[in-house]
């Protein structure tokens, strides 16, 4: 189509404008500058406590345990792995301090009887605290009766005198120091009887119930031992 005909043809002009507008629209779509993409913001990993390799407590970041910085911005040196020449450090084990033994619970009244060599003896013993609470005080009464023998069928003056001595109860006031080696050795402060005077008396817990005592004593007539039972 010639230029003059094109100028006189409104329909051709209209189509030309439509085509030019479409081409311009395509060009604008293809070459128009696109908007910048927004940066992807990743969540910051939370710091969690952890144990470093030989450096104590640290912070876990991105799966790596980072030790805390020290003065000067430097990290402490990493310890060499343990070897035969460089064994791992060991913490010495400190044994617990020895505990003092529990005080003996001897206070109370005790009684026991049993056969000795040629007689049957009964011992009553009372144990209490001393005024200063540093030891024990005690009071004892020992009564012994002779067993039956041939001398009782033919009594003599000597046999009767010996029987009277042995049957006479011997009482004593006892004093002691502190307990040692799980026993108490009583020292005699005063004898109330001149016949068979008590010289020494030793007591020690017997069994595991706390209701029995083993007692050894020595007086002017004998050396004997008995097991006493708590009566109160």
Explain the layout of strands and helices.
Elements: H1 3-7, H2 10-31, E1 48-51, E2 57-61, E3 64-66, E4 108-115, E5 119-129, E6 136-146, H3 157-167, E7 170-176, E8 184-191, E9 198-205, E10 212-219, E11 223-230
Antiparallel strand pairs: 1-2, 2-3, 4-5, 4-11, 5-6, 6-7, 7-8, 8-9, 9-10, 10-11
Short description:
This protein has helices spanning about 5, 10-30, 155-165, and strands at about 50, 55-60, 65, 110-115, 120-130, 135-145, 170-175, 185-190, 200-205, 210-220, 225-230. It is of the alpha+beta class.
Walk me through what this model shows.
The protein is α+β, with helices and mostly antiparallel strands. Helices cover 16% and strands 35% of the residues. The protein has helices spanning 3-7, 10-31, 157-167, and strands at 48-51, 57-61, 64-66, 108-115, 119-129, 136-146, 170-176, 184-191, 198-205, 212-219, 223-230. The strands form two sheets. The chain has an eight-stranded antiparallel beta barrel. A three-stranded antiparallel beta sheet has the order 1-2-3, with no helix packed on it. The longest helix is centred in the first third of the chain and has 22 residues, at 10-31. The N and C termini lie far apart (143 Å).
Considering DSSP H and I runs of 4 or more, what fraction of the residues is helical?
Answer: 10-25%
Please write the string of helix (H) and strand (E) elements: HHEEEEEEHEEEEE
CATH topology of the domain at 108-230, what is it called?
A: Lipocalin
The main sheet comes to: 8 strands, antiparallel, barrel
Strand portion: 25-35%
Q: C-alpha Rg, in Å? A: 54 Å
Enumerate the spans where pLDDT stays under 50 for 5 or more consecutive residues.
none
Rounded mean pLDDT is: 75
What would CATH call the architecture of the domain at 108-230?
A: Beta Barrel
**Number of DSSP helical runs:** 3
* CATH class type of the domain at 108-230: Mainly Beta
Distance between the termini: 143 Å
Spatial arrangement of strands, main beta sheet: 4-5-6-7-8-9-10-11
Total number of beta strands: 11
What characteristic shape results from the CA principal axes? rod-shaped
Helix/sheet category: alpha+beta
